[in-house]
Automatic annotation (TrEMBL):
Residue intervals passing through the bilayer: none
Keywords (A to Z) from UniProt: Hydrolase, Metalloprotease, Protease, Signal, Zinc
Gene3D superfamilies: Metalloenzyme, LuxS/M16 peptidase-like (3.30.830.10)
Annotated protein name in UniProt: Peptidase M16
Length: 439
């Protein structure tokens, strides 16, 4: 039995070590500006083809919000060579899966196929980029799909309105102030010409990165990429200006009522720097100290020991231009939201005034090592990371080196960054309450 246990443990350690090895990738540009990243791994007969476009909710007209997320749906409608409704049939009938997602900063499409269907995956993504059919029937169909998604995820979901409420109050100038799903009134008011103009502006090769990851042969794959993508016309260059927000200098207090909940919640939210900064990564570590598991400070204190909260969380919602550091709690019993805020503040003050222990720092680093390894433990995950590090960080090799940044963060930095950003006069406090019946 001991021998079996030892061999199992050894196998686990070896697999972790394998996944933690350096990701060897190759990157280059086509003549039309499309950036290409190749990661070859022939250990399993699977290949991921993906395209990330540098377009998200922040790139929208303030009177036409929701366009980027709408296109996440619309660009599955069909192309000049893929009939309407056939996209998913083609993928599934060839043993593949596919999906897409949108954030405030980018839109990501991907397929996972058996490696003998690499050519199909590349062709489909080139079709999406070159020959999308954007017509009224597709717009009308996806308008209904997006409305249903909004009802499900926001309108009828418990606590579904917290992100709209937080971001519209935390940001007054920057386009992060509206949600990715946008306004249904804006989408209803949009014309077909506006949708086509949005596609022409943003879904271009020089505003995208193509990633091929998995089981393939480089020379033949490069030829396929050239054949399918290089003839796609380059788009006009996109000029972006980061809109600067005025500092928050006194606590902002907001109340919102939600008919979908029975238990209130409180959110304390601080505006923080871009995901690319070292400060943002320090805030990631602070999140883990406060609520990363059952032994974390806030969970142990408020949920386990004092039983004042039924749920607690702290996380750094980091984005390309800014971030939002969120600490939230749901009260248990007769405890009030003010009680919870006072308790959360108490733990933050400790981080601002006391150094964490050597043991706590090592535990923190171990957790980030594990997270780093897991993010690169699948071909699909590696493809996503490669695209993200190129598009949003302008440094693809962070897929190998970002953990070094986290490991170099000191106890003193943790104290300094907590003191710099997590102060009551720099935050929004959202009391998220059950909706009371009107008499």
């Amino acid at each position: 039995m001991r021998k079996i246990y030892f061999l199992s443990l050894l196998g686990l350690l070896l697999s972790i070590n394998t996944f933690a090895q350096k990701v060897d990738f190759e990157e280059y540009d086509l003549s039309n500006g499309l950036h290409v990243i190749l990661y070859q791994d022939n250990s399993a007969p699977v290949v991921t083809t993906s395209v990330m476009y540098h377009v998200g909710a922040k790139d929208e007209n303030p009177e036409r919000t929701g366009f980027a997320h709408f296109f996440e749906h619309l660009l599955f409608e069909g192309t000049e060579n893929i009939k309407r409704g056939d996209w998913f049939k083609i993928v599934s009938s060839n043993g593949g899966t596919n999906n897409a997602n949108t954030t405030q900063d980018r839109t990501y499409y991907y397929e996972v196929f058996p490696s003998n269907n690499l050519k199909l995956g590349l062709w489909m993504e080139s079709e999406r980029m070159l020959h999308p059919i954007i017509n009224q029937i597709g717009v009308d169909t996806q308008n209904e799909v997006v409305k249903e998604e909004k009802r499900m995820r926001y309108d009828n979901s418990p606590y579904g309105q917290w992100t709209p409420q937080v971001f519209k109050n935390l940001f007054k100038k920057h386009p992060y102030r509206w949600t990715t799903i946008g306004s249904m009134d804006d989408l209803d008011a949009s014309t077909l010409e506006e949708f086509r103009a949005f596609n022409k502006k943003f879904y271009t090769p020089n505003n995208a990165v193509l990633v091929v990851a998995g089981d393939f042969e480089k020379a033949s794959t490069k030829k396929l990429i050239k054949d399918y993508f290089e003839s796609i016309p380059r788009g006009k260059e996109i000029t972006r200006t980061v809109i600067k927000e005025d500092p928050i200098t006194e606590e902002l207090n907001v109340t919102f009522e939600d008919s979908n909940i029975q238990i209130p919640a409180v959110f304390t939210v601080y505006r923080t720097p871009a995901m690319t900064t070292r400060d943002s990564r320090v805030l990631d570590m602070i999140s883990t100290i406060l609520s990363g598991g059952k032994s974390s400070r806030l969970y142990k204190k408020l949920v386990d020991d004092e039983k004042k909260a039924m749920q607690i969380a702290a996380f750094n919602y980091s984005l390309e231009d800014y971030g939002a550091y969120v600490v939230l709690a749901l009260p248990l019993g007769e405890n009030t939201l003010d009680d919870l805020v006072n308790e959360m503040d108490e733990e933050i003050v400790k981080l601002q005034t006391e150094l964490i222990s050597d043991k706590e720092l090592q535990k923190l680093r171990n957790k980030f090592e594990n997270k780093f390894v897991n993010s690169n433990s699948s071909i699909e995950g590696i493809a996503n990371s490669l695209a993200k590090y190129y598009m949003l960080y302008d440094n693809v090799n962070l897929i190998n080196t970002e953990i070094e940044i986290y490991n170099s963060i000191t106890k003193e930095e943790i104290r300094k960054i907590a003191k710099k950003y997590l102060n009551p006069n720099q935050r929004l406090v959202l009391d998220y309450l059950p909706k009371t019946a009107k008499e």
